[in-house]
Amino acid sequence: MEIWINPACSKCRSAISLLDAEGADYTVRRYLDDVPDEDEIRAVLDRLGLEPWDITRTQEPAARELGLKDWPRDATARDRWVTALAEHPGLIQRPIITADDGTAVVARTEEAVRDALSR
Question: Taking CA 101 as the corner, what is the angle to CA 99 and CA 105, rounded to the nearest 5 degrees?
């Protein structure tokens, strides 16, 4: 199990605390320092069953600078969104846990973290 975190994020700290309390075996990836490339982002999206715009923090300054609100949200624009996430990792929703069964969850709630633990 791997968890993508920003240590400054309270949701990430809460997820780590719960994983620790449950004795989970996991690896931390500080994705702002160890930036995922486009292929890794695509793989996580596949595991999540989501599209890149589903995990994009659209209220961030970089999102406004890029004009993401005006970008199409369809298959023709998917690669453009993935590139934006790779180039601006702060736009990636957090935390993301990749579960042992090959799936992943955006673990912003205790319920989502427990879901990942049960997989």
Answer: 35
19 CB burial (10 A radius; 0-12, 13-18, 19+) = buried
Annotated catalytic, 12? no
What's the rounded Cα separation, in Å, for the pair 17 and 7?
12
Structure tokens at 8: 């400054």
Query: Torsion angle of alpha carbons 97, 98, 104, 108, nearest 10°?
Result: 0
What tens digit of pLDDT does each residue of 28-68 get? 999 999 999 999 999 999 999 999 999 999 999 999 999 99
Of 9, 24, 28, 35, which is the active-site residue? Answer: 9
* Cα 82 to chain centroid, rounded: 12
pTM of the model: 0.94
Q: Are strands 27-30 and 2-5 parallel, antiparallel or unpaired?
A: parallel
